[in-house]
Amino acid sequence: MRLNAPGGRWGSRHARRAIRLLGGLFSLTMLLACLGAPVAHADEQGIPRTVDELLDAYGIADEPADFVVVVDTSASMMNEPPIYPAVQEVFQAFVQAIGDNDHLAVVTFDSDAVVRFNGTMDPPGRAAAMTALPEVADGQSTDIGAALGAALERLSRPEGAQVQTLIFLTDGEIWAPGSPYEARGSAAWNDLAAQAQQLSTSRTVQVFGAGLGAGATDIGAIKDVFPYAKVVSLPNDQLYDFFNEAVQRARIEKLRLPVTQELQRNVVQVTADPATLDDTTTLSLRLESKLPHLGTTVSLRGVTVSDDLGNQLQSTLVGGPRTFTIGPQQSSEPFKVQVEVPGLIHDFHLGDATESRRFQVSVDATLEAEPAAIVTMELGVDVVPQLSQAGIIRADRAYGTPYWQVAALIALLVFIGWLVAWLYRRFIAFPKLRGGVELPDGRIFPFQGKQETLPNSRIDFNGGGSRVVIFTEPRKFKSAFNTRRPRLYVRIDQGTAKIDAYGSEEFLSETRRLIDNNHQLIIGPTRLTVVTTSKKGK
């Protein structure tokens, strides 16, 4: 939340009052607008990007903080141009800006330090705090040491918050006759420094000091007590920014401890997907964030891979170096590493076998917590996410020929051999007869099957007791797919018979005799004509 200052310069008394009134109204209006504005949400990766988002993520947005405001009320604060009215105006806007659960103490000082308000910002407390500052500044001294002592007393209360802020305003130099704090470096000042040091060991204390006006001030004296204090000299018109910075820093400081603890207690883990072993084995790696609230930017430079004996293997990061961001409790997209694996078994092996290799992977990367603008720059937290390497990665492969596969192959080969033999005998070794015989009465009987015995029940004629067989010659393998008509042969099985070929009759014997178209067979008293051309039977 931000305090908003009105513009313009200080003029007459009436002009100044009008400016203060308008400025206060404007500041309160802008403040309420900020309070009513919708809260932004984390980005698509789930990473909080603003202070509000981080406070919500850690659940500490309503965690109380302590504020102590110390204001110089010496009479010089009313000198022309007056400083005190501007302080009153900004203080009221500040009271409206701090959280409902915050605790506020208001201390004014001149010759002594007075606690004007000490309470929480519930509605009654906030209303009372708005009028905590006196109407006028009219003190005669400037006891800065007493004011610091009163502030330390408020900050050191046992129930105090972890995050505390001290805002100190003065326009003058130390003037405190008779006070133990009259001279810087005195025992009283040393006691204040010791108290502050003791306080800082258990709590986070921020100190903002502003020297107001054009004259010299001793605002630097607060660094004698709080060496880390931020001390500036301010004109009146920068008071809004000064108070706003203090409020914002208090909200940011709430994050310091939980952010630091998260980075100290959690890591980004390297994980590996199951890998299959090969001559070139591909390892698939991921980065898994264990951080519950913060994101991580990873600058991946390379990966080295060693075997289980510590020998570094040749490896290549696929895609080369890259930068990517991981959301809280999320995993990165996989990145792959190709590893050359020597000495794998490639000989024939009968039976099932498994080969395994173990790899040690080391990822080289730089990690930065996100949002870096807040964690690193605003908080100054120098703890970075730690990278936890993967353990031993195992890759396996199966090799060899299983016995069942060998048996199946043998069975298949036997079946194929039987099938080839059957097909050869069925369609090649003994081809079917083609053609037929013509009887003297003109009837034509086509041959059937692979051999024909004449006469028979189908081709019935007077054979005079003789019988002949017509058959084909088995084909040779090289002519297995020859589509030409198979050659016909004849032999005598019973009695006597003749063949009339080209006008010359010859007796048949038990040995085969080649016959062709229009050759005549004389079986007994019957003369048959061999027909090998295409004729339809009758």
* Poorly predicted ranges: 5-40
The number of E-state strands comes to 27
Arithmetic mean pLDDT = 87
In this structure, how is the largest beta sheet organized?
Answer: 6 strands, mixed
The secondary structure category is alpha+beta
Q: Report the β-strand fraction as a percent range.
A: 25-35%
Strand order of the largest sheet: 3-2-1-4-5-6
The Rg value, from CA coordinates, equals 54 Å
Principal-axes shape call: rod-shaped
- Put simply, the count of helices is 11
Please, could you describe this protein's structure?
With 538 residues, the chain is of the alpha+beta class. It has 3 domains: 50-254, von Willebrand factor, type A domain (Rossmann fold), CATH 3.40.50; 266-399, Immunoglobulin-like; 436-531, Tumour Suppressor Smad4, CATH 2.60.200. It has 11 helices and 27 strands. It has helices at residues 13-36, 51-58, 84-97, 123-130, 144-155, 187-200, 222-225, 239-253, 256-265, 372-378, 403-429; strands at residues 66-72, 103-109, 113-120, 163-170, 204-212, 230-234, 267-272, 275-276, 280-289, 295-307, 312-313, 315-317, 322-326, 335-340, 353-370, 386-388, 392-399, 436-438, 444-446, 451-454, 467-472, 488-494, 497-501, 504-507, 513-515, 520-523, 526-531. Strands 3-2-1-4-5-6 form a 6-stranded mixed β-sheet, sandwiched between helices. The radius of gyration is 54 Å and the shape is rod-shaped.
